[in-house]
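Hi there, hope your week has been kind to you so far. Do you reckon you could talk me through the fold, stretch by stretch? Thanks so much in advance, here it is.
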Amino acid sequence: QVQLVESGGGLVQAGGSLRLSCAVSGSIFSINVMGWYRQGPGKQRELVAAITSGGTTNYPDSVKGRFTISRDDAKNTVSLQMDSLKPEDTAVYYCNARRLAITRTYDYWGQGTQVTVSS
């Protein structure tokens, strides 16, 4: 099992910055990919950033150049630096840990943290 606890959400004006953090505990050695997802009002949950155990990162075009994911293995944390925020970035942001097994994928989720960007 893996436990995830997010922090750092809040209200910010457009153009501002926020940094989200995710504290990871449990079977950390089994995690292959860490990611941040978001779900806006009336929308499906979508990936905003991912980082593999080897440090490879992935971002969708909507946040590329504005968001940066990083990991601190010594502190067992994953962070998401969000710059140049836009009102459309408003959503609940979720930390995700993914374990890839031979026959299936295991996903673990945090409780989510609200990010609101005002225009």
